[in-house]
Amino acid sequence: MADAKVIPFGEEPRARRKARRAGRTGQSPALAPVPEARTGPDEPAATERPVAGRSLDARIAGGLSFLRRRITGDYEVDDFGYDEELTDQVLMSLLRPIAEKYFRVEVKGIENIPADGGALIVANHSGTLPLDGLMLQVAVHDNHPAERHLRLLAADLVFVLPVINELARKAGHTLACAEDAQRLLELGEVVGVMPEGFKGIGKPFADRYKLQRFGRGGFVSTALRAGAPIVPCSIVGAEEIYPMLGNAKTLARVLGLPYFPITPTFPWLGPLGGVPLPTKWTIQFGEPIPTDGYPPEAADDPMLMFNLTDQVRETIQHTLYKLLVQRRSVFF
How is 202-251 classified by DSSP, letter by letter? Predict the structure, then answer.
C-alpha cells in the first residue's frame, strides 16, 4: 500500500476544499445535475432530479473509489497524521450510530463554538473508558453548521497502545502538550482538552459529577498565547456507563495502567462486561471566554491563569449540577 501525501499546515486538504465548494454551490448529495434536454419545443428542460434509485450504485462507486485511493496512497494527512477523509467516511460513520442511537446524545449551545478560527474546548472527563472524548468529537462535527473537526489532546498512554495509537493519529488527536495545542490553535483548529485526565475518568462512582483538580492551568496559558477563546463544556451521562465500584491497584501496576476498574459487570462477565450501559447523554457548550484582549505577557501571570482556570472549572461544575437537576432519568 502506497504512503499518503503529507500536507504541511497552511495548505488546505483536498477533501476539505471539496466540501467547502459543495457547501458554496448548495448541491445536495441526493440530487444530481442532469444535462439540459428537450424532446419537443414546448417541453421544459430538466435541470435536477432525484437519484434515489441510483443511491446504492453511487454508494458502491464511492466505496470502491475510497478503496482505490487507500491502496494507491492518493489521500492526504497533515503533519500530525490526521486523515480527514478516513475520519469523515469511516471513523465518524462508526461512531455516529453509537452517539445517536445508543447514547442518544443531546447537544446544547453548539453556537458557542466559533464558525472559524481557533477555539479551545475544555470539558469534564468521566466514564472509566474515554468514550466521552469520542462522543464529543461526533457532537462537534455533526451539530456545528460548519461541521468543524475537534482535535483532542490525549494522554501518553493512548499513543503507546497498538492500533489505538494509529487510529488516534488518523482521527486528528495528538499528545496533550502545550506546543502541539498552541500550534493547532494558531492554525485555526478546534482543540479539545479534558484537564482532569485519569483523575476524572478513573474516579469512583461515589464521586460522579464532582470535578477533580484541573492541573496547573496549562490549557489557559496555551489559549492566552494563541489568543483563542475557551469554551467550557459539560457532559452528563458518561459517569454511569461503567459504574466504577473499585480499583485493583496491584493489578493496575502490574499491567502498567493508571487504574484497573471493578464494575458491576467487569471482570465478572468477561468481554460482555465491556459493553457500556445505554445511558442518556447531554453535552452542553457554554459561552466562550475570550482571551485575545490580554497582553502577551499575560500567559506567564500565575494569578491570571489560576483565576481563569477556576472560572472555567466553576462554569463546568455549575452546568453539570443544572443538567443533573433537569435530567429525568439516567437512561431516558
Answer: T--GGGTT-----TT-HHHHHHHHHTPPEEEEEEESGGGSS---EE-HHH
